[in-house]
Amino acid sequence: MKYKLHYRLINYLLLLSFVSVLLGIAIINKSILIILFTTVAVILFVYGSYGCYSKVEKNISRLAEAVKNRDFTFIINNSSTIQGISNSLNEIIDVLKTEKFNLEEKEKYYGYIINNIPMSIIVLTEKFEIISCNETTLSMFNLEILSNLSQLSRYNGLDEILRNIDHSESRYLFVKINECEMNLLVRANNVNISNVIYKVITIGDIRQEINRNELDSWIKLTRVLTHEIMNGIAPINFMCNAIISENKDISPAVLSGINVISNISNRMMKMVDAYRQFSLLPTPNPKPIYVAKIISDIRLLLSEELSGVKVNVDVSPDDLLIYADESLIRQVIINILKNAIQSMNFNSLTTPEIKIQSFIDSKERIYINMFNNGEEITDDVEDNMFVPFFTTKNEGSGIGLSVSRKIMMLSDGSLEYEHRAGEKYTTCFKLIFN
Q: pTM of this prediction?
């Protein structure tokens, strides 16, 4: 293609040279006819060259305008006089079109990554105007569109925090969104792009991570304690039983003391078994479960304990499914229902009630909420209820809620508590399946 253009230019130059020589000879020989002929030829040559130049200039202008408007859909028509240039310009258009397509694909790729990051990302100008945000932001704050920071003011003054947070600074914030409690970690970083400063805000809910790390720490500690206690208690228990069974001539006082030691060691062995239950949960074997059916089965299993308790069940839709290990989820629900029954005063005038509500929210998370109107949980108990081995019961092991929360984490979900002071149902435990 470019060689044809070179040949055409060489031919034009040779023709111009020939006409110039011919004109010179005509002037020397004073041949009017030849002078007239060569003059016309030169005029036609100049006119043709100018037309060729005008077409090239027009096409280059169109190309420049197309690049400016990011429009690469047009094609420059070939001309017999400037075919090489037209083809070259079309090649440039094809290259630009390919680059544009590659850039669009990269934008889609990076956009997909940003929108699937489980963290809110908000980009602000120096005047706190919102340039962009990812889909996680809209989902986290239950918004259709985020156009102004004032939309976040209802979340414990989050809008002011975003305005005042400095470069490389981190802040922690507790908020409640759609009855779901969150511990937010807010971070800011300034970015200079073409001498314009943008503030990039990232917001993440670290509540689940805090709970997970806390439970993992307790599990590690429990395993160590279990090992040490067993090493100390097992020989004592064995020796006490041996002394009691083999020595007939032991005085009653000594025998009574040995029995006390044996009973204490047996209770400690049971406590170690509880430790093991907490630290050695089985790996879940998830399968589809109908929520309505598992609740119905549990009500039948606890029919004796639930006698005298009004139970309301609301599952929407009726065929709502969760994907989890049925035996482990059954254990969680039973534990929470038993705690609810134990918190109720059956001698009061108020009818003991439990309400079980299950539904799917706009984020496709499935909830199983269990309400009761038993005694309100005090603040100090609320702060420690998920701490392993914390209990308010005389015979309790204190691992029920800890194990339940761990099971929900293993099931890619969470167990949350909501205090509902002043309402009909004062207590609510939420099983949330992501």
A: 0.55
Rounded alpha-carbon distances, angstroms, from residue 374 to 196, 216, 337, 424, 425? 58, 31, 11, 10, 8
CATH of the domain at 138: 3.30.450.20
How confident is residue 238, by pLDDT bands cut at 50, 70 and 90?
confident
For residue 183, what pLDDT is reported? 80
Q: What share of the chain is helix, strand, coil (3-state, %, to 5)?
A: 55, 20, 30
**Length reported for the chain:** 434
Tokens read off for 409: 């984490």
Are 403 and 335 within 8 A, CB to CB?
yes
Asked if residue 357 and residue 233 are part of one domain, the reply reads: no
What is the secondary structure of 284-350 as a DSSP string? Answer: P--EEEEHHHHHHHHHHHTTTTTTT-EEEEEESSTT-EEEE-HHHHHHHHHHHHHHHHHT--TTSSS
**Per-residue pLDDT tens digits for 2-33:** 444 455 556 656 666 666 666 666 666 666 66
Largest CA distance in the chain: 158
Whole-angstrom distance, CA of residue 268 vs CA of residue 234 = 10
Q: Give the Cβ contact number of residue 405 at 10 Å.
A: 23
Tell me whether strands 170-177 and 130-133 are parallel, antiparallel or unpaired: unpaired
Rounded Cα distance, 208 and 134, in Å: 21
Residues whose CB falls within 8 Å of the CB of residue 390, separated by 6 or more in sequence, listed in order: 384, 398
CATH of the domain at 370: 3.30.565.10
Which pLDDT belongs to residue 130?
92
Q: How many domains does the chain have?
A: 4
Supply the range of the domain harboring residue 409: 287-433
Whole-angstrom CA distances from 386 to 169, 230, 393 are 31, 25, 14
